[in-house]
Amino acid sequence: MGKINTSLSAIALAVALGGCTGQSTPESTTTAVEETPVAVPAEQTENVLLQEFAGPFGGVPAFDQMDLEDLKPALEQAMALNMEEIEAIANNPDAPTFQNVIVEMERAGDALGRVFTYYGIWSSNKSSPEFRAIRAEMSPALSAFFSEITQNEKLFQRVKAVYESEELATLTPEEQRITWLTYNSFARNGATLEGEAKARYAAINQELATLHNQFSSNVLEDEEGYVTYITADQLDGLPESFVNGAKAAAETRGEPDKYAITNTRSSMDPFLTYSTNRELREKVWRTYYNRGDNGDARDNNDIIKQILTLRDERVKLLGYENYAQWRLEDRMAKNPENAMDLMMKVWPAAIARVEEEVADMQAVADAEGAEITIAPWDYRFYAEKVRQAKYDLDSNEVKEYLQLDKLRDAMFYVAGRLFNFSFSPVEEGKVPVFHEDVQVWEVTDKDSGEHIGLWYLDPFARQGKRSGAWATTYRSYTTFDGKQTVLSSNNSNFVKGADGEPTLISWDDAETYFHEFGHALHFLAADVEYPTSHSGVRDYTEFQSQLLERWLTTDEVINQYLVHYKTGEPIPADLVAKIKTAATFNEGFKTTEYMASAIMDLKYHTTDPAVIDPDTFEREELTKLGMPEEIVMRHRSPHFGHVFSGEGYAAAYYGYMWAEVLTADAAEAFMEAPGGFYDEEMSDKLVKHLFAVRNAMDPAEAYRLFRGRDAGVDALMRDRGFPIPESTTDSE
To answer: Among the three residues 188, 221, 254, which one is the final residue of a domain in this structure?
Structure first.
């Protein structure tokens, strides 16, 4: 719904835990690039969260002036202002047209969009008990506000009139699409209901908003509240860089004589990979995977059942059989059967590979006389031993060539080659930031020098910051109401290196770094007219970012940016060869832990919630699937924030795999090109058809323009080193 729709996306972003998002936040309406004075309406002058973005680069958020006391009144006032705009559109006496309905809706909601920019920062980057109390209070109020808009009968009838009018045929393809998206967002969200059904639909949304908020708060509190402290005699096997980071993390928590293993993946993962202390590995593993599942006041199992029950009731009001059917209707998969079919093509090969991986690990453990049976907290540790034995590849040795700053420069290099972008650091203090760790770069066209936007980077873990990695925008590119440039952001949870030491990260983290930057490039490369064109299609929006991961292994990046953190020497050619040879190593683990979460997501949303006890359901369904005992879901149900702290990925977590089908196929297109991954013709097609268009075109059509055909699953199976099923079909 134009700005309204992106506002809803902003809430989902602000509340969601885990996984990255390509959703954009609401845009402000500023046009100039140079610093200019901005006229601010009188009613907005006292609350900075409502004010137009001022200052350089077309205006930037006043992150340095954020005051939590301003948040609730800003939300209330912004909702009131937005409702005035909506009522004016709904009650316009003139006949409905694209200009006086759809365009005016695109223009509405600026003030609320700006408030959500700050709301998202508090929620994701600098949360606190005080903020969470405000969020708990305001989430149902915001839900009621958006329900009131969606259920505005006069507004819906005007939207419907435009959608069904002869004028539609005269509009541009983008205008036709946003009209359809706007109409669809009403029709699929209760606008067609009447009487008690319409009232119940709105009430369910309010209840869900409260439950989503409670779910995410419980997970964050478990991440903050459970920290494993170890002492100097328990550091055996841990890399120096990790030890230094754990020492610094303990010092910030008032434990200067200890080492902190925080309850985040970026801390848990390397500890399980390298620590020789099996008892501690089990403790850290259980602490991490039991988030939201500790049988205490923060336990999320009952909340999951309540969420599933309400979602099921809501979609049945609209006539759908189950939540997944409703969710996937306008996605690339179209229905849950197609999504599950893709998963089931890959699942048998994935668990078969796990069986091989476990056998290799058990053989190593037996040869060492460990007298153990491989358990989940052993998987990473012995996988690393197998990696070294099979490929003579030491992950810690590789890590010494993966410096965070150098990898950032590598990403800038790739963006320059593919997108013709140049990144220049913004003078400190010129652009306000919300934490001292945040850095800002200006993005320009390499040839013309034209200003494209800004890129904010918030790379390090800290208390109050949600786990995982994600991307967002504080302003998206549009031209319908004066050109707006991009304010994009990447956020991670790397463990900061000790003072004076570079931050070293794992190969998997380096891929994630590139992945999230892919989302930022998707924002920065946009060439669309309207805000609604930035709304994402969930099983497509991860494709572009997954594709960008492939440039990490290009020779140009490896030879220039992977240098040793002490000597500055480039990574040796033989080590690079080992990395590439081992490219599909441990693929069984990575694919299975992800797919278990994706399959369970679909099962949760295609099963009658009345028969679901979350703890039992997770265990029994995974057993039916033949889930290997040595692996758990990447996101176990009680902390599956993608699915239960909001609805962005609900019944849609499979989308990463759907997008991976496109990724593998598109990567083969570059491999077949004369210039490889830096082929100019392919790069032009990449930007034009896969990045710039955003959601202004049907994703399937956009991919066909890039590739000349649909993508099938074969490239994915080749990419992962899995046998290709005897009979496969296209993914679209």
So the answer is: 221
Instruction: Indicate whether 11 and 77 sit together in one domain.
Output: yes
Strand partners, 425: 441
Q: What are the E-state strand segments in 341-420?
A: none
Q: Considering only CA atoms, which of 247, 234, 246 is closest in space to residue 270?
A: 246
Looking at the structure, tell me whether residues 139 and 189 fall in a common domain. Answer: yes
What b/e sequence results for 228-244 when a residue is b if at least 16 CB atoms lie within 10 Å of its CB, and e otherwise?
Answer: bebeeebbebbbebbbb
Q: How many CA atoms lie within 13 A of 517 on its CB side?
A: 27
The parent domain of residue 50 ranges over 2-221
198-213 per-position pLDDT tens digit: 999 999 999 999 999 9
CA distance 15 to 7: 12
Which tokens in the block code for residue 440?
């800002």
**CA distances (Å), 341 to each of 345, 348, 603, in order?**
6, 12, 13
Alpha-carbon distance 628 to 589, whole Å? 10
- Can you tell me which residue has the tokens 């028969």? 611
pLDDT below 70 — which residues of the chain? 1-45, 726-732
Residue type, 84: E
Relative to beta strand 451-460, strand 439-445 is antiparallel
How many domains in the chain?
2
Partners of 473 in the β-ladder: 488
HEC profile of 496-520: CCCCCCCCECCHHHHHHHHHHHHHH
Cα separation, 160 vs 233, in Å, equals 69
- Report the catalytic residues: 516
101 in Cβ contact with 164 (< 8 Å):
no
Angle at 621 between CA 615 and CA 623, to 5 degrees: 105
One domain, residues 92 and 148: yes
The residue among 17, 30, 214 whose CA lies nearest residue 124 is: 17
Residue where a domain stops, chosen among 192, 221, 250: 221
Residue 708's alpha-carbon distances to 460, 570, 730, in angstroms, are 41, 39, 13
d(CA 375, CA 189) in angstroms, rounded, equals 45
Q: What is the pLDDT of residue 45?
A: 56
Q: How far separated are the first and last CA of the chain, in Å rounded? A: 26
| Residue position matching structure tokens 């699953």 | 713
E strand residue ranges, 588-681: none
CA distance 714 to 246: 43
Spatial contact of 336 and 325, defined as CB atoms under 8 Å apart: yes
